[in-house]
Design goal:
alpha+beta, eight-stranded antiparallel sheet, 3 helices
Length: 225
């Protein structure tokens, strides 16, 4: 914000020197810059069986994953597309311990191309485990898009996170994915095209199904890439 403000101030000075009304053109960009970095407080649902959205944006896809290597079995993925006008602070979807952080270099494909962006774009993948059992339960994946160029993740491995806790940010439009292990028997509470708010809106509720029971379908739909 400081760097951007200085750059815009210099631009305003240069434009104003040429013709003073031109300096006003910088004002909307400055307002957008401050709005982009806003970080509102959110009321986090207290139910222990609820998983909240890890990001602000629009639910772009809901997909069953037959086998997730990081979670050790099937899962359901909820993809959230963040436009440049959304809050870009990422939140922890549930309480858990960070057991793995994987940063991968990659491309900058349009984040609306769900599967391709998920597989090929630069990303940061975080695995959360149950605090008591150590069993991996959730993956949060921060993915750059066509415009986004920087991913920030602040917690370290072995750190315990609380539901709704701020964990990082993706700058200037992107995609955030939430993978929930089928072992938790999740019920997806959002629909395609629905707007969600990080830490405030419930993405899924989880049941108490035993870990070794047979996996059953989590949602009745797959969405195209």
């Amino acid at each position: 914000m400081l760097i951007g403000s200085v750059v815009l101030a210099l631009m305003a000075f240069g434009l104003g020197y040429a013709w003073w009304p031109l300096a006003i053109l910088v004002a909307p960009v400055l307002i957008w810059l401050f709005a982009f970095f806003r970080d509102p407080e959110r009321a986090v649902p207290t139910s222990v069986n609820s998983f909240v959205s890890p990001a602000d944006g629009v639910v772009s896809d809901i997909t069953e994953i037959a086998h997730d290597e990081l979670l050790g079995g099937p899962s359901v993925r909820v993809g959230i597309f963040l436009s440049v006008f959304n809050v870009h602070v990422n939140r922890s979807p549930c309480a858990g311990r960070v057991i793995k952080v994987i940063y991968r270099k990659g491309k900058f494909i349009n984040a609306m191309k769900h599967n391709q962006a998920s597989e090929e774009n630069e990303s940061n993948t975080v695995v959360l485990a149950d605090i008591n059992t150590g069993e991996p339960i959730v993956v949060v994946k921060q993915i750059v898009g066509l415009i986004a160029r920087r991913i920030i993740f602040t917690p370290g491995e072995n750190e315990v996170l609380q539901k709704g806790q701020r964990i990082g940010m993706i700058k200037f439009g992107s995609r955030t994915e939430l993978y929930i292990s089928a072992k938790l028997c999740p019920q997806i509470m959002v629909k395609l095209g629905q707007s969600v708010r990080g830490a405030a809106d419930v993405i899924a509720t989880v049941g108490t199904k035993a870990i070794d029971e047979e996996f059953e379908p989590l949602v009745s739909r797959n969405t195209p890439a």
